[in-house]
Design goal:
Blueprint (H helix, E strand, L loop, with lengths): L2 H17 L15 H4 L2 H7 L6 H31 L13 E4 L3 E2 L7 E3 L5 E4 L9 E2 L2 E7 L2 E6 L5 E6 L2
Antiparallel strand pairs: 1-6, 2-5, 3-4, 4-8, 6-7, 7-8
Helix pairs in contact: 1-4
Length: 166
């Protein structure tokens, strides 16, 4: 993952506290959050957000919007969710996010793909999807979403739901 993004994610998590004072749209809708709305000019500079390319900034703001929506929905549903969660519904935990490198060749995913990470963890594909792409030892990030854990592979536009098996 780019060095600048390693600083952005912790700052973004801290900034989320500011969102709870704002009235949000309905819980199921996606919030559109822009970095400039929640960070000062100095924070944008210090974290490197102001130096991101347009594509990197767009990707960061899309992630920030998804993350904010997820946090908001969890907070709103906290009281009813805890009592209704069954053991069979427990999902992989990937918070804080897992950052590592895939061990060896990456050829995409095709339905039941197993992902071995350099940190020793092993994850498997948790939804049906197919994509082909080749890279050697790409960096990955696995992060929590409302439905479980999602993996982003360096230089890939698509992401995939995964679950930890080791």
């Amino acid at each position: 993952m780019h060095a600048k993004l390693r600083y952005i994610i912790p700052i973004a998590v801290l900034v989320l506290g500011a969102f709870f004072g704002v009235r949000f749209m309905a819980a199921q809708s996606r919030l559109a959050v822009k970095a400039e709305d929640v960070m000062t000019a100095q924070e944008l500079k210090d974290t490197g957000v102001s130096g991101l390319t347009a594509a990197q900034k767009k990707a960061f703001e899309e992630w920030l919007s998804r993350y904010t929506t997820t946090v908001y929905n969890v907070a709103v549903n906290q009281g009813t969710r805890e009592s209704s969660v069954k053991p069979s519904e427990v999902r992989s935990v990937c918070a804080p996010a897992v950052e590592s490198t895939l061990a060896g060749d990456f050829n995409g995913w095709e339905g039941e793909t197993i992902f071995k990470l350099d940190n020793g963890q092993i994850w498997e594909q948790a939804e049906y999807s197919y994509t082909y792409s080749y890279s050697y030892r790409p960096e990955i990030t696995i992060y929590q979403v409302s439905g479980g854990c999602r993996m982003k592979v360096e230089d890939e536009d698509e992401t995939i739901m995964v679950r930890r098996i080791k």
